[in-house]
C-alpha cells in the first residue's frame, strides 16, 4: 500500500526533500531498556554550535544563514570532500540512480552533519550518514 502511494509521488518532488527517514516501530524491550542516550540539552548545544558555524560561514551573504540555502557554485566551494568520500558518493549515485539535485542535497546534508560534529572538513562518515537519509530513493524501502 505504501509503495503504491509512493509510486504516485514524482522523483523530482522527492529530490527536493533533503531527509527521507523511515520510522519503524520500536519494540517495548528497547523502549524500557536502560540504554544511555544523548540528552536533549546536549543535542540542543550541538545544534546551537552548528548554527553558529553556519552563521559565520555565510556572514557575507545577506539573507543566507544555513547550508540548505547554498547554491550550486557555493556547494562546490564549501562542500569539498576527499577522494574516498567522492568514491563512496559516486557508488551511491550509481547504485541508487540519484539525480544531480540529490547529489547537491547529500553534500549540503553532509556539511550540516560535519557542522554538528564540529568538524571543519566533511569526512567519509558524514557522506555515508547523509546517503542513509535518502531512503525514499531506494527500491522497496518500505518493505
Molecular structure report:
The chain is mostly helical and 143 residues long. The protein has one domain. Helices cover 57% and strands 0% of the residues. The chain is built from 8 helices and no strands. It has helices spanning 2-8, 11-15, 28-32, 40-57, 72-78, 83-96, 100-116, 124-132. Helix 6 runs parallel beside helix 8 (124-132) and helix 7 crosses helix 8. It is globular. The termini are close together. The model has no long low-confidence stretch (mean pLDDT 87).
Q: Radius of gyration in whole Å, from Cα? A: 17 Å
Percent helix: 55-70%
H and E string: HHHHHHHH
Q: How many strands appear in the DSSP assignment?
A: 0
Taking all residues together, what is the mean pLDDT?
87
SS class: mainly alpha
Instruction: Please mark out the parts with pLDDT under 50 across 5 or more consecutive residues, or reply none.
Output: none
Largest sheet: none
Distance between the amino and carboxyl termini: 10 Å
What is the count of distinct domains? 1
Strand content: under 5%
Quick gist of this model?
The chain has eight helices and no strands.
Provide key terms for this protein.
single chain; 143 residues; mainly alpha; 8 helices; 57% helix; 0% strand
List the helices and strands and how they pair.
Blueprint: H1 2-8, H2 11-15, H3 28-32, H4 40-57, H5 72-78, H6 83-96, H7 100-116, H8 124-132
Helix pairs in contact: 6-8, 7-8
Amino acid at each position: 500500500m505504501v509503495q503504491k502511494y509512493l509510486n504516485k509521488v514524482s522523483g523530482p518532488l522527492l529530490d527536493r526533500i533533503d531527509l527521507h527517514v523511515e520510522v519503524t516501530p520500536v519494540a517495548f524491550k528497547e523502549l524500557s531498556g536502560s540504554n544511555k542516550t544523548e540528552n536533549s540539552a546536549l543535542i540542543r548545544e550541538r545544534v546551537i554550535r552548528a548554527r553558529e558555524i553556519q552563521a559565520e560561514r555565510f556572514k557575507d551573504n545577506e539573507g543566507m544563514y544555513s547550508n540548505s540555502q547554498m547554491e550550486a557554485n557555493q556547494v562546490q566551494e564549501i562542500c569539498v570532500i576527499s577522494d574516498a568520500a567522492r568514491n563512496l558518493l559516486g557508488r551511491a549515485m550509481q547504485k541508487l540512480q540519484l539525480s544531480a539535485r540529490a547529489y547537491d542535497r547529500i553534500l549540503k546534508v553532509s556539511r550540516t552533519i560535519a557542522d554538528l560534529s564540529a568538524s571543519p572538513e566533511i569526512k567519509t562518515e558524514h557522506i555515508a550518514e547523509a546517503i542513509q537519509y535518502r531512503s525514499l530513493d531506494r527500491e522497496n524501502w518500505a518493505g
